[in-house]
Amino acid sequence: MSSKTVNQNAWWLVLPVFIMVAFNALIPLMTVVNYSVQESFGNNEFFWSGTIWFEQLLEDDQFRSSLLRQISFTSIVLFIQVPLGLGIALCMPRKGPWVSVCLVLMALPLLVPWNVVGSMWNIMALPDIGLLGKGLNALGIPFNYTRQPISAWFTVVLMDVWHWTSLVVLLCYAGLVSIPDAYYQAAKVDGAKPWAVFRFIQLPKLKHVLTIAILLRFMDSFMIYTEVIVLTGGGPGSATKFLSIDLVQKALGGFDLGPAAAMSIVYFLIILLTSWLFYTLMMRNEAQ
Amino acid sequence: MDFLSWMAWTWPTAFFFIFIFSSIAAMGVWEYYVPGSDPRHGIFGLDTTRGDRLFITLLGSAFIFLAWLGIFGVPLWGGLIVSLIWAFVVFRWV
User: Nearest by CB to B62, which of A48, A51, A269?
Assistant: First the structure.
């Protein structure tokens, strides 16, 4: 019998996940790194090109503009979705028959496929027949998302808020219902006001779910592609051409595998750095 | 090796990955023989283990190389020296 008190054999259980990750993440990532330093003219033939694609990318104004647009979009949706989701979760009932109704209603947008979301909002925002577009124009607000960049941005942000705020709501709601009643009873005994309950009980207890919500929303919104390509196609002009759209146009449209691979790597590094910073900063006080 | 041809391997990229995997393996061996114990509170105010420090080193080095390439261009020896200094700083004080 082993004298060890800690058994390390459970690590073998990680092996299937490791193999899966290797095939769906590690091998493609390695391939992208290989492509990023080579030039290909098809037919599976590659020629060494060194760091030239990275140099081109760092001087590329189009890349900088799409990166800036991407950062702006992600910041806007995070600033709207996180407080809104938290607010809705706080308003939702904790007991009674309405709980299921609210949960199902909240989960509905998450069940709609991304390309369908794009089509729905495309039709809804049409200035001549869409409910949103025609309604806004009838109110005297000039709205045409196919011509005005501001209208296009408004529609894309509204679509993302409609689609993904529910995720934040559900995560926050799960966090809220897991807070034991004893905390609320103690707050009542102390005569705490609703704001104090929120600030000193609910918010600290929601820290983990909010971290997950922000991380998920950051990563997803930073990689947004399908909804926007269906809704605006990156237009009008390049007004809603985010990083992923720029990347796909390079990789598939121009079949420029080298430059697209270099762009993917920089894209990946930005997401990795930002996610790590978010996670580390939000979990910073955990151990103290 | 035809089944690998689509991955378009080159020796420099192969060495790059061999280096990363060897670093991770070496960290494992180091941890086995000389356990690094609890996370350390470093100069950035973060609690880091050795693995965290390797991650910070590699991620930071990627950005150092990109910055070097953007500002000074090739060759990248300068970026390598800055990355090695960064690695030393991270493992010593972060």
Answer: A269
Query: What is the rounded CA–CA span in Å between residue A212 and residue A172?
Result: 10
A26 and chain B in contact, CB less than 8 A:
no
Q: Return the domain boundaries, chain B.
A: 1-35, 40-94
**Quick check: helix, strand or coil at residue A175?**
helix
Going from the N-terminus, what domains does chain A have, and what CATH number goes with each?
Answer: 60-282 (1.10.3720.10)
Contact A152, A239 (CB under 8 A): yes
Mutate to test the interface with B, among A45, A280, A284, A288 (most CBs of B within 10 A): A280
Q: What's the complex ipTM?
A: 0.90
Residues of chain B numbered 65-94 and touching chain A (CB < 8 Å): 66, 69-70, 73-74, 76
What phi, psi does B4 have (nearest 5°)?
A: -100, -5
Task: Please judge whether A34 and B12 are an interchain contact, meaning their C-beta atoms are less than 8 angstroms apart.
Answer: no
When pLDDT is averaged across residues B68-73 and rounded to a whole number, the result is 89
The contacts of residue A120 (CB under 8 Å, 6+ apart) are A112
What sign has the CA pseudo-torsion A120, A125, A130, A131? positive
Low-confidence ranges of chain A (pLDDT < 70): 1-4, 285-288
Tell me how far CA of residue A81 lies from CA of A87, A165, A213, A230, B74, in angstroms.
10, 5, 10, 22, 43
